[in-house]
Amino acid sequence: MSILADLLNTVFERRYRFGLARQDDRPFEDLTADLIGATGEVTGQAVARQLLDRYEGWSDEDRLAFFRHLATAMDVQPEAVRAALAAYEEAPGKASYRAFAAAAEPPRQELIRRLNMVPGATHLLVRMRADLLRLGRGEEALMALDLDFRHLFASWFNRGFLVLRPISWESPAAILEKIIAYEAVHAIDSWDDLRRRLQPADRRCFAFFHPAMPDEPLIFVEVALTQGVATSVQALLAEDRTLRAADQADTANFYSISNCQAGLAGISFGNSLIKQVAADLSQALPGLKTFVTLSPMPGFRRWLADQGLDRDDMTETQQRQLGAHYLTRAKRGDGQPLDPVARFHLGNGALVHALNAGADTSPKGLKQSHGLMVNYLYDLARVSQNHERFAAAQEVAMSGEVRGLTSAAESALKETTE
Q: Measured between alpha carbons, how far is 83 from 103 in angstroms, rounded to an integer?
């Protein structure tokens, strides 16, 4: 770990100690009021510790009551915001701006900050937000509360605080167990399976960690070093595949990217992770010239059904054509791609490179996309340009091959509707 990471780790751990506070049995409403009103750091930490300890022992019903209290009793006061804004508009300046900023921030944001004063609290707050997302679905006031968590987490977990660490077969067992548990794309079904993904010279795995959660990966990516672009995930993960030396590879295939913390949903790490890993690998292995993914298409089968199309009635070429159309032309109401994985990679500046029929023959792959997978190409010299065009006008970068597949699909779809 770098010197900067060590320094940040020291800062975030804050290893000073304070005496165990006497158990406070007052309602949590009183404790939250005390925490907001606390003027001393030690007193504030003691109250925060009481709240966090109590939260961990609560039922879902208790936690929901706590969230509703934060959402209602600790919300912004519209009249105060309007008055502060009027005062600022009348006399812009430091004091009037400070007053407006204070009025516009709900007290619950400061409460969350003060809860985070307790050493080790960051991970619990991440789990707390996961509970909020799970329990508060459909309640507008609770979704507003979630925006406060998300606002704070976006600062606490920005790229400058994240530490990139390689994961290998020699990594601590506790970390390896979490890699198995958090793998979300291609399940790891045994320790031998994990060994095959980590130990060979032509395999890599990298994860982002945060100094306040040093034993919890936030997101990780698995990489296969190959000659040529991979077109089948089963071939990549086969027990009897041919092993090769890392310096013989010309392509890095990112075949699995897994977010690990439900409480950090919506906080983007993948963009930075892929680009950082690609840059590090290109420096360590100069023979690597191509950086691609082998990605699922989780909504393709459903989209086909919505179009009244049956996979059994089409050839592999037709499947690839329709897959290209789905990725590049099927849109949500806001103009973004319908496919969630496409939104992620295209938003990162990747290019739709190739469609591969029969690339994932697992039950999950067949259920999601009839086995179709896609390679997204990360051209490090063009990702910024691709990203800007996609962000400005939803312009999808694609290879000539994919463009041809898309055109053929549009002609075929037009014929079926005439």
A: 9
